[in-house]
Amino acid sequence: MYKHTGSRGSGAPGWVLQRITGILLVVVVIGHYFIMHADPASGHTYSAVLERMHHPFWKMFDLTFITVGLWHGLNGTWGIFRDYELKPAVSLTIYGIIILSGIAFWVLGVNTILSF
Amino acid sequence: MIKHQYDVLIVGAGGAGLRAALEIPEGFSCAVLSKVSPTRSHTGAAQGGVGAALGNEEEDSWEWHMFDTVKGSDYLGDQDAIEIMTKDAIRAVIELEHMGMPFSRTPEGKIAQRRFGGHTRPENPNDPDSKRVAVKRSCYSADRTGHVMLHTLYENCLKQKVQFFSEYFVTDLIMSAGQRLDSSRSSGQGNVCVGLVALDIATSEVHVFHAKAVMLATGGYGRIFRITSNAHVGTGDGFAFVYNNGLPLEDMEFVQFHPTGLWKLGILISEAARGEGGILLNNKGERFMERYAPTVKDLAPRDMVSRAILTEIREGRGFKGSDGTYYVQLDVTHLPKEVIDDKLPEITGFARTYLGVEPTKEPIPVQPTAHYAMGGIPTTVDGEVIKDKKSTKVPGLYAAGEAACVSVHGGNRLGTNSLLDIIVFGRRGGKAIAKFIKDTDFAPLPNDAAERTVSTIDRIMNSKGKEKVGALRMELQEKMMEKVGIFRNEKDLKEMTSEIKSLRERYQEVSIDDKGKVFNTDLMEAIELGNLIDTAEPIIYGALVRQESRGAHSREDFPNRDDKNWLKHTLIYKTDGAPKVDYKPVSITRFQPKERKY
Amino acid sequence: MKVTLRIQRYNPEKDSEPYYQEFSLEVDDDKERILDILHRVKWQYDGTLAFRRSCAHGVCGSDGIRINGRNRLACSTLLRDVNYRKPIVIEPLPSMAIIKDLIVDMSDFYKKYEAVKPYLTSNAPPPENERLQSNEDAEKLFESAKCILCACCTTSCPSTWSDGNYIGPAALLKAYRFAFDTRDDAADDRLDVIDTPDGIWRCHTIFNCVEACPKEINLTWHISQLKKRLAEREM
Lengths: 116, 598, 235
Known about the structure:
The complex is a heterotrimer.
Chain A: H1 12-38, H2 40-44, H3 46-53, H4 56-82, H5 88-114
Helix pairs in contact in A: 1-4, 4-5
Chain B: E1 2-11, H1 15-21, E2 30-34, E3 50-51, H2 62-72, H3 79-99, E4 113-122, E5 132-139, H4 145-159, E6 163-166, E7 168-176, E8 192-200, E9 205-216, H5 237-244, E10 249-250, E11 255-262, H6 272-275, E12 279-281, H7 289-292, H8 302-314, E13 319-320, E14 326-331, H9 337-343, H10 345-355, E15 364-373, E16 377-378, E17 384-386, E18 393-399, E19 404-405, H11 417-438, H12 451-462, H13 469-483, E20 487-488, H14 490-507, H15 521-545, E21 554-555, H16 563-566, E22 568-573, E23 580-585
Parallel strand pairs in B: 1-2, 1-9, 2-6, 9-18, 16-19, 20-21
Antiparallel strand pairs in B: 3-5, 4-5, 7-8, 8-9, 10-22, 11-15, 12-14, 13-14, 14-15, 17-18, 22-23
Helix pairs in contact in B: 1-4, 1-11, 2-3, 3-11, 5-15, 13-14, 13-15, 14-15
Chain C: E1 2-9, E2 19-26, H1 34-45, E3 64-67, E4 70-73, E5 88-91, E6 98-100, E7 103-104, H2 107-115, H3 135-145, H4 158-162, H5 168-179, H6 187-194, H7 208-212, H8 219-234
């Protein structure tokens, strides 16, 4: 009796991951704020960024940020759409846009990080 | 008009009806009709528990339970039926547990039990004549036993895929001369039940249901009285169907009034409040029960306390409420706050929610409230409706629950025995039906089956009369409360016989505002008012003929019990004039009548 | 004192859409129940007013309606529980089809309730006596077993408003009632039913259901227990 667009199997992993990524984001976003915005010198000078980005820890930090942030944000967005009764075609289109844009931004982000 | 055919029809989706439905075997069609959605039935309002001598908390036996029930009934209960009920109680309660009913539990994980008014055991188990002390016999689920029982039974009906016609209002039985296998029993007109007529409330369409067997599990008639603990749907429909089809009603004069209903609303404040130390006060601040029952005081039996409250009010020591009725006070303010919060949460919650009274700070206004119908449609111990003192059966017609009078409650019902009654006799009725439909064919349906219903509806819908349902019902309720309530006497009852005649005439002039077809609750209430008036008549006549005081029936002009002349059941038949009265013997097997004192 | 009820009316035989009608009447004090006032409107002023009711003390669940924008039982709400100095707005429960006046079509609500298989299923044949269960285990069910199926919670839930297929808090509570019963063997079946896109994951812990429940059941807590149970099952 229930609609099934975009559903495969249980919703439990998605629910758990949304919470885990949420917790990770709290940590990563605070870290991001301190290095990028709290001290303009470390965030806005090319040399400082360049130096930091050569460090593997910061690469991992930013890779985590982009992966977790994208997944959390897009899964949440999809969740909002799923709260409405949508026609299957509309639902599928939105789902497609979310997946494709997610992949595109992730590839772009990862490329950028790894190019340092 | 829409026609249906089912092997079995059950009217009412409370405990008795649902329990019966579970007995109808696969391969036979069964439908349950209810004027409200099944879980709205009034079984759900029962709080205290269901009585069974499980002996989980302390030693107990079904014979002690039987004795208490017989004594509680003031010896009017049929002892063969009471024996069946109290013996079967143990199996019946365990079966509910197997069905999934959530019970409170003992430390060993068994069904928990607690004490309840009137349930006792001999102090010395080896000496049945030793002093009786209270016993833990009431199996409970917090203070919502009836609610979880109703839900459990309904859930099991869903599991068995029982068919429901929810919000179908049954208006009449279809009786016919009928040709049956057992033709010896069906001589004469209208002796066999072949179906029923119902109104689909959502559309006002009249449906004719043809059946081999019909069970009435329609509950009580509390709404005949101004102050009642019963639901608005407790309008005595089943009693009226039977009565209007020339069949008798038994012991209708026995109406249980619970002493402590919330003032104006009638909502029950259980005796647990007094059990924990609450006391009753009159307008002089006196603990008046000390005068009526010097030893047990506020914990005297229900009928006694109700009579005491009314006496105080009559002698000018009641409080006058804004609605013109009088009340006394139930005071629990002296109890520790923990007792009120932990042991009486539901009760004190009711006072807070419904009267805005804070029971820890101020007394609760209470007055006796019409609570339970001991009498009803006479049946055998297998739910088969009978039509005379020789217990001649009416083929195809069954009754169970509060609507029926087996009789296990006699003159006064003990607490926890109503939930027991519905599961024991609901099941037995269902089993009897299951057997009956196997070797019975459908008897032909009369052509004019729905005529009475259709003409009643036409009359009410087209009437331009001056009488209004609400006003007429209020008049009936107030008069019944005043004259056929806790105290009765010949003068009042005689007055009521002419009152009821005039109310019935005025009922013919009832008109309604709603002329539509969709959910016409105005029409429904008008038909229910007719049922109330029809049910009131046998109550009045039963009370008038019974010249004694027994159990809940208290005659000021005959204050004593009279076993020589009145140890018998009354049967009241409708006629064109004054109803016909007949009597049926009481079954006495194990316990000879003794004076009832506690 | 005088109070005014502003009642949403709709008769499908006459009206194309609902409208509001005001009734002013004298009341004794602020302790009168909304249900009694509705009855007086029906019995004294307008017999066509339609609403459901039965027990009149909060155990049958018939008279869930919307009073001043909150889902409540008419019988358990006194005048003093609402602002009666302004007209009291009485409407049917939101998000359900209106049949007439305050009566809504409950069939979808019951269908969702039935979807969670609301009955005990045990694989083992029952013992001769009762099954044993500790009182702690029994009491874990009591709050959920209090439910009177009035639909106040489900119709107060924004997830229900936006997605009519969402199974809703009442049915989830019923799923809890059986999935957490130590005597039950069909928890997996019930979890399968609620572990769907229109199932439990549409609950965003908004807490409207908790606020609406006239029996003071903490629905969101019960739903969270089910979510945890599902997470444990899947991971």
